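Table S2 (text version). Query chain:
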Amino acid sequence: MEPFAKDTLPGHRTGETVRTKPASIAQRAKRDKLRPLGIPTLEDKLVQSVLAIILENIYEQDFLDTSYGFRPGRKPHDALKDLSKNIGTKKVGFIVDADIRGYFDHVDHEWLMTMLKERISDSKILRLIKKFLKVGIMEEGKRANTDEGVPQGGSLSPLLGNIYLHYVLDLWFSKVVVKHCQGEAYLTRFADDSVACFQYQRDAQRFYEAFEKRLGKFNLEIAQEKTRIIEFGRFAERDIKRRGGRKPKTFDFLGFTHYCGKNRKGRFKLKWKTARKKFQAKVTAFTEWIKANRNLPLKDIWENVNSKLRGHFNYYGVSDNWRGLLKYKKEVERVLCEWLRRRSQRSKLTWPWFNQLKKIYPIAQPKSLINLNSAFV
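Corresponding structure-token output:
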């Protein structure tokens, strides 16, 4: 048996038979990227909210510090700080940037119920949760059964998904993977996005292979085209240049591209910038919005534009990403000017006129950055 391969859930007897899906996950048909919505009624929302409070009080004391998604008082920036601390201060030389394909669509109901029974003995609560999982969805006016996955749109779904990965990944990593690594190993997870850090490449490779098998046992599948092992960290640039390479590769996590840089003293520093895909998606979304709302009064347009800019600045305003904020603001202004010019065929809105217009209706500016530097978190 491989060092990382442990099939039993915490609390199960060693040697207990592991239930697996009869059909191969690799043969599963490729599904549409859009997840079906499960919109609960008012009564269902109330019941789900109460259940979420009960489960949250039970599992908050069980969840590990490496987990940040869908937990009270834990934001994406906290996960980024944790990852920054691991890479910047620990013995980290390799990164496993893991992605689970269609995670929330493929949560196994039977496995999830087995996990819940580890901490919940009330049969009424378990029966309610099972009903929510099996409620089904409407497709073109017809009801379709949900044999796997957690329905999107319910307040209970994120918490159930978090519980599932708590057993599948978090506990397994802390109790099995770390103990079998020859060097240091750390995990940071936000919902279904995770980054594993290792001191040695052989540990990272063994984890990748074991993780793929581990997910398969729980009806999940690793997205191989999005999961990779890269050399990254304080000594990566030095070692890569010794071998004739240029610089370490980058990786994306929570909308940010992480890359190796240096501070003013020439020492290693982890740096961040807005991920290219996220940047392009945000510009496209703003373009579609202004295209549909360009005929609103200018005051209303500016209020919405500034609201969107402040939201972007609040999330992407982190260390070393000041240029990214200014770049996004510049793109917003360009798109805004272009579509205001199309309000009328007689419009003569030029850039000088647009700049004069900004004096009447100021555009929001980025103000401060969230410090993610590992020396200060």
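Notes on Table S2: The longest helix spans residues 157-180. The longest strand covers residues 256-262.
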